[in-house]
Amino acid sequence: MKNKYLLYSALFLLSMSSCEDKLDADRYFGDRMTIEKVFADRDYSERWLSDAYSHLIGVNADVSSKGFTMYCFADDMYFGDRDDKYKKWKNGEYDEGWEQGPWGECYTGIYQASVFIHNIDRNTKFTEEERADYKAQARFVRAYYYWLLLRKYGPIPIMPDEGMDFTQEYEDLAVARSSYDEVANFIASEMQIAAKDLPLERGPLAIARPTRGAALAARAKVLLYAASPINNPHPSDTEKFSDMVNFDGKHLIAQEYDETKWARAAAAALDVMELPGNQANGKRYDLYHLGRRTSGSVGYPVTIEPYKDGDFSEHTWPDGWQDIDPFESYRSLFDGEVSASDNYELIFTRGQNQSSEGVDIMVVHQLPTSATGWNTHGLTQKMCDAYYMNDGSDCPGKDLEIGGANGTVRETGFVDETNQENYPELGEHRIGVSLQYVQREPRFYASVAYNGSTWFLLNESNDANRNQQVFYYRGMGNGYNNNNAFWLRTGIGVKKFVHPYDTHENRDMGRIRRKAEPAIRYAEILLIYAEALNELDGSHNIESWDGSKTYTIKRDINEMKKGIRPIRCRAGIPDYTAAEYASKDLFREKIKRERMIELMGEGHRYYDLRRWKDAEKEESQPIYGCNTLMTEQYKDLFHIPVVVPSLPTNFSRKMYFWPISHSELKRNRLLTQNPGWTYND
């Protein structure tokens, strides 16, 4: 059995990328005891599994600040500090050696999980049920690492599960890239196997460990990507990545359209939706929602009555919004108000297990300078425009500057003493707010730090520093200043993830509410279901994950509504029109926009644009924002969008997939490079 350990070590050499110093468990156990002894001991076995988990955090986080992952920033969000890094990234000026940490971390985790899977059954210190659960956790973790690699690099090598003969010559220890479909199907299969032995729920102390729902939800994500245009081109598509091949000429990206991929993705989402549980609907998950607030306090305002649409406005949840607070329901999902264990929308999370660049640090970069925040994470004008008005219509002048004119122009004027009673959604501090920011949907006010918005900062020690109205005009403390590098380049900040009590006074992280990372939540599953159904022309019979039933999957508007109506209802805005449901093209555009809004800041947009093959258009458009060079004296000019020169945009074909490092190409002779990137010779 010592030889078997060496077999895995030889296999692992293929995927090492200057990460030898991170193999703490490998070094510890390899130096001090045989694999037999490790898996004869309960504590050592658990430590091995813990090490397999440990590579999920840091650079492999789904949601974090840019120090860990820049992929939470696309055409929606930007970071305004670390300018050189931002420009290098957005201009595609990075090279094959840049930001390669995830490759080594993922394959390290894959190795650790594989050893665990193949050896845990020998440990008699665990019950049979415990061994099955632990093995399923390791299988989930291993598959999730493959998912993270697939999402970033495209097709990648799948390491042989049985190991490799370590007596072979080094140059023979090579594994070619599997195709996108092969990797996606492998991940989906592994998640399906893991789901059988994972529990439906875990206690508060094990919230970061996967459940059955987490495995099935990750499976749905993977199948959605495999069905998307990046790997499922229509015959009319001119871009099929036909040059992404192995050395033997094997295509790594599908070259023909297959509608059944969409049906499989829809069925996988339905598997999650159908999981039994104790929610009011009898299911495991629901969209998180809170009751109406009839009396308010600072930071917790009275519920603003949503638009009277004659539909949602006439019913209680889940059929309407009569008895819920859309603003607070959405805000508290992310700001730490509700614990991960009490959040029945959260399907998979790393919990609060982040380090120096996690969600809490992301909030520090969002907070204004008046709260000792870095004041550098902001939103683009495009993202600001994406949010609906409270009646579900577009904001006047939406995307006017980038060619998306809908026949309207932007609002002018400001809230003043004569009209302030018309805009209770702005809260206590309304005077001076541009009319471009009034009467928007609740998610806007939970997410957007517009000019003149209120930051509550209730943990500030000085009463005078709480409940601030913050403006971003030039010369003001939070606006552009010649001597200050920390200001919002667009004059539009980010409120999402910020709790009413959050502040960074005296650089004290203890004044920021801890937040659980939202890696996968139920809203995403509903959106997957609706998106996948929309793409179907035919009817498909797909077995459920456990084979207990067969779904008939087709483009059924009533089924599509199951994915969209709950999200629109919780958001406090009307449902789509009959015409939008009826048209595949219109509905596709609505779904893309819904994902942009609902999932903003959660690490989706960057990859969504790539899987849809929309990045070439959307990420090449100039970034617009407020004219931050204007002082309050010229506030009309401040609110006329202008191109932000310090936020460059560029996109080339090679940026669809991240480059593979030269060191990995040299190490693995069967590994081919992604299109547009270079080899090391």
TrEMBL record:
SUPFAM superfamilies for the chain: TPR-like
Extent of the signal sequence: none
Record-annotated RagB/SusD domain positions: 339-677
Subcellular localization: Cell outer membrane
Keyword annotations from UniProtKB, A to Z: Cell outer membrane, Membrane, Signal
Cross-referenced Gene3D superfamilies: 1.25.40.390
GO annotations of cellular component type: cell outer membrane
InterPro entries: SusD-like_N (IPR033985), SusD_RagB_dom (IPR012944), TPR-like_helical_dom_sf (IPR011990)
Every SusD-like N-terminal domain range: 101-224
Family per record: Belongs to the SusD family.
Name of protein: RagB/SusD family nutrient uptake outer membrane protein
Organism: Phocaeicola coprocola
Lineage of source species: Bacteria, Pseudomonadati, Bacteroidota, Bacteroidia, Bacteroidales
